């Protein structure tokens, strides 16, 4: 019943910028922690960043300083601003909602980000 739809992915050159968005349906956005994960080819899915209901953000060390997560609780939309992109950032990026012990309850379909050199 809950749907998360990512958009904004595409192909960019190294050093460029991109912004991803996640539109949420249902009555869960304003009450749940949100997060961005990514999965590179041949790699496991890994967390990129998460944000609390109140807007406090947490980043993985590998991306800190190059990405910014934000949320609009009125429009039920999650964002991920990515700057100074590296080829290592090439992956499918997933939106997730409502954290539990070790993962999240809801997941989007993902959006592809490709960074070329």
Characterise this structure.
This protein is mainly β and 117 residues long. 0% of the residues lie in helices and 54% in strands. The strands form two sheets. Strands 2, 4, 5, 6, 9, 10 and 11 form a seven-stranded mixed sheet that branches. The protein starts with a strand and ends with a strand.
* Helix fraction by DSSP (H/I, runs of at least 4): under 10%
Described by strand count, sense and barrel closure, the largest sheet is:
7 strands, mixed
**Structural class by sheet pairing and helices:** mainly beta
Rg is: 13 Å
Helix-strand sequence: EEEEEEEEEEE
Uncertain parts: none
Strand content: over 45%
Overall morphology: globular
N-end to C-end Cα span: 40 Å
How many strand segments? Answer: 11
Main attributes?
117 residues, mainly beta, 4-stranded antiparallel sheet, 11 strands, 0% helix, globular
Short overview:
With 117 residues, the protein is mostly beta strands.
What's the SSE blueprint?
Blueprint: E1 3-7, E2 10-13, E3 18-25, E4 34-39, E5 46-51, E6 57-59, E7 67-72, E8 77-82, E9 91-99, E10 104-107, E11 111-116
Parallel strand pairs: 2-11
Antiparallel strand pairs: 1-3, 3-8, 4-5, 4-9, 5-6, 7-8, 9-10, 9-11
